[in-house]
């Protein structure tokens, strides 16, 4: 293909060692709630993580994300309190026989993590009509989630744990962060160095839920009639 | 921290070479539309990519994804035709002065790519109440987007290009794939080996939109009053 205005360069597969490193990040990444060390995050390291997030794919190259880097103790405490209110509600939604286990699982590290990062999605970024978002307005949210995953993998390689906290009443999260209406909070991430990680997902280790068999999740050509 | 039922293991930062490999995957990954080679994807390679996706984080470990692996020519042709119908509509949504450039940019490789992969989100996976999804039902969609990003990075390391196609009328995409109502198509990905990749995002190379300055996207503690 000719390239009128951009440069194409050879794109070979990575070496086996490089591929192994990537797969190791993917396979050993864990959602962290309890293993955060109090050591501060070096600003240059944090910048590398944010730059990794910023290199996520985005529909129409709209780059809808912002990064709210929270180090203020009061904001963290407000988030912690908002989580606690929502989590009390959440626990009551489960069948009675699961509530004790639910209550025993730590689901956030908002005040222990040296940095809390909220990645947001600005639905107005790139103007009223965005290439690739014309038929599915949620694609900007998907792009923002991809940014969170880039960051999680870079963090694993840097020895930094990431814990994604989802249990908030959205109105409270918006009020604490003063988010305008056109901005959606997508990922609230606790970040901090870790010396240890679970060797399997913590929810599996704790008996909450197990990894599904990949082969059961793969279909050929179309959704099967019997599924 | 004690670990009653799961194993904790030391979690050091990766070596510099390993970190470099991960950042290289993140920085050189491109959305591919035109560079696909016709070579088939080895089933073992495709399986590694799907396994990478399956190791994405998911809210409550619900693993809401399925992987519809499309190799049938007719299904690909149906997707290509559905894209064309939607893309004609999309072009008309842009201001007149951008339509020629829009029309000149190839936005899919559905029939050239040896595999088209649709990653879906099953909103019923894990039951009626899912840990961490109690207050934000969209978290399962975010998990599914994270799976797509894991796959995109693994693909880059394997020398496989990925092109995410978003321009479909959702009802047509659902009909072609026979998706039930409780399943949302999140990512339609063209996959194939590539010998060359753009050195910058193609939309930037083509003058559509440029990368934003990271520092402008970072806020401290809260959304700023003036933003």
Structure description:
The structure is a homodimer of 227-residue chains. The first copy, chain A, is an alpha+beta fold and 227 residues long. The first copy, chain A, has one domain (31-197): NADH Oxidase (3-Layer(aba) Sandwich), CATH 3.40.109.10. Helix content of chain A is 38%, strand content 18%. Chain A is built from seven helices and seven strands. The first copy, chain A, has helices at residues 16-28, 43-54, 73-93, 96-104, 139-157, 170-177, 202-205, and strands at 8-10, 65-70, 115-122, 160-165, 183-193, 196-198, 218-220. In chain A, strands 2-3-5-4 form a four-stranded antiparallel beta sheet, with helices on both faces. At the A-B interface, strand 1, helix 1, helix 2, strand 2 and helix 3 of A face strand 1, helix 1, helix 2, strand 2 and helix 3 of B.
